Amino acid sequence: DAKTTQPPSMDCAEGRAANLPCNHSTISGNEYVYWYRQIHSQGPQYIIHGLKNNETNEMASLIITEDRKSSTLILPHATLRDTAVYYCIVITGNQFYFGTGTSLTVIP
Amino acid sequence: DGGITQSPKYLFRKEGQNVTLSCEQNLNHDAMYWYRQDPGQGLRLIYYSQIVNDFQKGDIAEGYSVSREKKESFPLTVTSAQKNPTAFYLCASSIAGTGRRANEKLFFGSGTQLSVL
User: Can you tell me the mean pLDDT for A77-81?
Assistant: First the structure.
């Protein structure tokens, strides 16, 4: 099964870029990498996903290494409202597996 | 306004009681999911359904039951057999089951916090 590994916590200064890493060394060729975030006591919110090319949307950028064994979610200008738990997910079989994620704290 | 509605937001269960958590979606999604989240932990899959009248167990199905009689609805019953039911329960849906499409997105409800009296 493809699984993901993320650091448990990170801090980022407000207005700076937040770079959240994820390892998914067992990912297979047709499995997408997804990123979600969860603010306390709410449902997770979709951020972005990608297969092998870098992706950008209004919320974030996703950089996937050429060997696809790791990726980085970039929040270009972090705000206090970006404080949340960020999950990196790879679908295996018919299931989205959520690990414990990275708790990002944006500091004023 | 399209989306997923979970109710109630807070629910209390007495010892030996079954309780049912509601999940309704108007997104016309085929697949629906139930996750459990304990404090400081990630989400664990309880049950999922890829089509009406069909559902499969996830990693922690013991003590739970579901039904999928309508496309829009996927209620979860926490039975008395679930000895540690206190948790945050999240319902989600996606357009089709992940086995059919590789780039699915999950859409989540706002959750139900279940506590034991």
Answer: 96
